[in-house]
Amino acid sequence: LFSFHGIPQRYVDNGDPYYTHCKETTQGVVQRLHLATGDWTQAFQSRATRERWLEPYTDKTLLEYAKNGPKEVSVICPAFATDCLETLEEIAIRNKADFLAAGGKSFDYIPCLNASASHVDMFAQLVRRFSSDSDRSSVADRR
Fold it and tell me: At residue 88, does pLDDT exceed 90?
């Protein structure tokens, strides 16, 4: 299950590209890992208001899985660079407990990249790649 932070549906209806970006991210990972169509789902977490948010909702998807399968799930939150309340408390603790209590058998949370050396190196490479020499010197001048 690919779980992305949700946003109100009206944002997307008004032109926000977030949903498309999430879909493209999921498709990229699915293609890279050669996942079959029925082996994955994309859902959205962290609803904060009563209005309609992007669907399907992660918590409801997991409860449906627990009742009607699959009974074993792995959940990843690819839009999060580091673990936080929404990944640890909401997904890895609360959603896991709800899934298992509703009949799920196995729940595996795949952690974010966090502060690993390779993650920090990747960000450093991106900064170097997309910043010009003048950008770097102006940052150094402000120190």
Answer: yes
Residue 108: strand pairing partners: 74
* Strand residue runs (E) in 6-142: 42-45, 72-76, 106-110
Q: What is d(CA 143, CA 140) in angstroms, rounded to the nearest whole number?
A: 5
Alpha-carbon dihedral angle through residues 10, 96, 61, 80, given to the nearest 10 degrees: 40
Q: What is the pLDDT of residue 119?
A: 84
Residue range 116-120: mean pLDDT, rounded: 86
Is 82:39 a contact under the CB 8 Å cutoff? Answer: no
Q: How many CA atoms lie less than 13 Å away from 72 in the CB half-sphere?
A: 2
Is residue 106 helix, strand or coil?
Answer: strand
Distance CA 87, CA 4 (A): 10
Amino acid letter for position 113: L
Would you say the pTM of this structure is higher than 0.85? no
- Please, what is the Cα angle at 116 between 115 and 120, to 5 degrees? 75
Residue 81 confidence (pLDDT): 87
Using the 8-state DSSP alphabet, how is residue 60 labeled?
A: H
H/E stretch holding 45 reads strand 42-45
